[in-house]
Amino acid sequence: MDLSLIVPLRFPGERPRTLPLRNHLLTNAAVWSPDGWWIVYDVRSDAAGSRFDGTRIERVNVVDGTIETLYESRDGACVGVVTCSPVDDRVVFIHGPERPTADWYYGACHRQGLIAGAGRVENLDARDIVPPFTPGALRGGSHVHTFDGRGEWIAFTYEDHVLAQLDPILNQRNVGISVPGLPVAVPGTHPRNHNGSHFSVLVTRTTAHPQHGSDEISKAFEEAWVGRGGYLRANGTRQRRAIAFQGIVASGISELFIVDLPGDVTHPGDEPLEGTATRAPCPPRGCVQRRLTYTESRRFAGIQGPRHWPRSHPDGSQIAFLMKDDAGIVQIWIVSPAGGEPRQVTHNPWDIASAFSWSPDGRSIAHIMDHSVFSTDVVTGESKRLTERTPDATSPRPEACVFSPDGSRIAYVRTVENFNQIFTVDVGSMHVLPASFRHAR
Q1: Strand partners for 71
Q2: CB–CB of 285/269 below 8 Å?
């Protein structure tokens, strides 16, 4: 059965105090600290997380339930969608606008990334929304930031304020990266301009009107790093960094794509890195975008199922995603980063019902199915039920199902007394570890 701890929030120098019950939201990946002792999360007012109104990034200790505040926003800004570095105590998360106004409020074009850790907080991505734009700075908002396997580069999704103001159809969602060691300073020509600690560029290319029969896309989204250190090409050489993502093709369905990244992202391709007043920022020289799946002829075409991000085997050899089988049931599929025919992993009678993650050894995938947490063996396709089946109102939620760094536990969220609470389950048994918590009234 599930075990809960009632845990007060502790502030430095203060006695423990009790807070009202809140909703706790996990991101779809990288919620564990590298040592496996802590889980990071954000707080919001609604269970679905659709209102981005939390003001704190917190973490809970999975051994004793201690809660720590990692960051608290100010001046009306909201924060959320936090992920951990795989190598140290840094976290990265979305930060909404401070002092929001009627023309600059939280939204896809107005958010940014913040990095916190080692006693420092810094802007991830610079912003410059007044021409001439600045190479290495964005002109809009970033979202869902994740470190690569070395804890160096950071990927994100992006939307462009400049193009959204010109014509919303020109503002397609794209995928970008931020590279450390190359801080970007921008002119103070707009009150919403700001400097960034990283050099940020877009790495995908979209168009408002993809041509039928082409590999053009109108949207690039739900991205994930491929492998801890990239993947091996067919010729035996290593592509050090690549990102898998979903792309919307001309027929309107979502297919799986990959973009191979160059080692140096500061050189422009055929258009400016920073974009123009009428064109989106352009990927750096050496970015190669490829389509991996072609599913239009299937009975149930396209990537389908709950909102999810493709996830790579730790060695980069396989990329997992969700798609319906011929019976219309959402299953796990995998495909090589080189392309080819996808392989169906699961053959279960129930839909995969959540985002998912690979175990660190690459043998299993954790996911929600039939109101329970499951671990599926990727080779045999066998799915093991790890938690008891529960009613709809208290079932594990679809947003996250994340293996710990040592592969022994899975973190997930389910509703208790109408509030989202964080739980972990031991992969080796049905026993649920007491890392779940709830604040007492």
Answers
A1: 57
A2: yes
Whole-angstrom distance, CA of residue 154 vs CA of residue 411: 22
Q: Rounded CA gap, 173 and 232, in Å? A: 29
SS (H, E, C) 367-406: EEECCEEEEEECCCCCEEECCCCCCHHHCEEEEEEEECCC
Say what the pTM is: 0.92
- Pairing mode, strands 319-324 and 311-312: antiparallel
The whole-angstrom distance between residue 414's C-alpha and the CA centroid of its chain comes to 19
> By the 8 A CB rule, do 420 and 413 touch?
yes
Tell the residue number behind the tokens 């109102």, with chain if given.
393
344 neighbors 324 (Cβ within 8 angstroms): no
User: Which are the contacts of 293, defined by CB distance < 8 A and separation ≥ 6?
Assistant: 255, 256, 303, 321, 335, 342
Contact 287, 308 (CB under 8 A): no
**Two tokens, residue 57:** 């990034």
Q: Which two tokens stand for residue 177?
A: 């990266």
DSSP symbols for 280-332: PPPPBTT-EEEE----TTSSS-SS-SSS---EE-TTSS-EEEEEE-TTS-EEE
Strands 357-358 and 364-369: antiparallel
Rounded distance, CA 75 to CA 209, Å?
A: 40
Residue 422 tokens, joined: 């964080």
Residue pointed to by tokens 């091996």: 232
How far is the C-alpha of 421 from the C-alpha of 439, rounded, in Å?
9
Is residue 413 a contact partner of residue 396, using CB atoms and an 8 Å limit? yes
- Residue 88, pLDDT > 80, answer yes
Q: What does the pLDDT read at residue 57?
A: 97
pLDDT tens track for 127-168: 999 999 999 999 999 999 999 999 999 999 999 999 999 999
Distance CA 325, CA 353 (A): 14
- Taking the C-alpha atoms of residue 316 and residue 231, their distance in angstroms, rounded to an integer, is 5
Cα–Cα distance measured from residue 4 to residue 234, given in angstroms and rounded to the nearest whole number: 49
- Prior bond to 360 cis, omega within 30? no
Give CA angle at 259 (256, 260), nearest 5°: 140
Terminal CA-to-CA distance of the chain, rounded, Å?
23
Do you know the residue count of the chain? 441
Distance CA 398, CA 328 (A): 19
